[in-house]
Amino acid sequence: MEIQDFNLRRLLNNEYLAFSREFEALIEKLGPATLGVEAVFGQFKTALQAFDDSIVKVRKSALTAQMRESDKLRDNYHIGILEQIQTAKRHFDPEVRAAGERMDPLLSAFQSAQLRSFDDQTGVTNNFLQELQADKYKADVEKLNLGGWIAALKEANGRCATLTSDRTGERTTQVQNQTTAVTRPLADKAYTDLVKRLNALCLINGDADYADLIPYWNTRIDHYRTVISRRLGAGKGGSTGSGDNAPNPPTGGGGGEEERPGEL
Fold first, then answer.
1. Per-residue DSSP letters for 12-72?
2. Which residues contact residue 102 at a Cβ distance below 8 angstroms, ignoring those fewer than 6 apart?
């Protein structure tokens, strides 16, 4: 008794994932230690998870909306400060007007900061904040009551910097996830090694310890042969019934009922 050979490459990626997860669940239910495959099964699980992670790559950042909203607030506060300075230059109070005139250089230096790229604006805004908090403008900032505006801009800009860092970490994780072209062959090998180990142990130790595994799994392999033949054409999945098949699932249930061909 042995698990039959099966051409894994004819399974589409999602079919292969379903096939492998089903085999994984079967081994876990029967017990890797009981079957004598703890080490090789661990390698199979690792390779399978890497393949699973590589199937779908989510390119759109979950942080994009937050970055857009934070950038909008930063722009509003930045423009608001400049408008306060511009308004002060026309103020009826001579002291307020004089403070506005002294802060006028900031208008030309930082009036277009919101047109810069996201990260570039973070740096420019830091420079703007440093100027606003410098000793030379301390009295004028107090005169124009800009303290609240500056605090709000500082908080918004800090939030933008944090979001940039978070997105870098997110993208690093995406890059580290390998493609299926790399992970699928490794998963194939891990499955093949596991099957070879099980077949060898069955040959050495006898059929009894594997009676709940091999006949049932051969039946499931025949199911996937049918799935392939439905998709590629009659016989493309290979001939069914070539292994030791049993119509009943292992003791305790576990999905032994045959699905309609072609459905996973």
1. -HHHHHHHHHHHHHHHHHH-HHHHT-HHHHHHHHHHHHHHHHHH----S-TTHHHHHHHHH
2. 137, 140
C-alpha 93: how far from its chain's center? Answer: 58
Measured CA distances, 255 to 2, 104, 215, 248 (Å): 21, 76, 14, 10
d(CA 89, CA 103): 9
pLDDT truncated to tens, each residue of the chain (264 aa)?
899 998 898 898 889 999 999 999 999 999 999 999 999 999 999 999 989 888 866 556 678 888 999 999 999 999 999 999 999 999 999 999 999 999 999 998 998 888 888 889 999 999 999 999 999 999 999 999 999 999 999 999 999 999 988 887 666 656 556 688 889 999 999 999 999 999 999 999 988 889 999 999 999 999 998 888 888 777 666 665 654 444 333 433 333 333 333 333
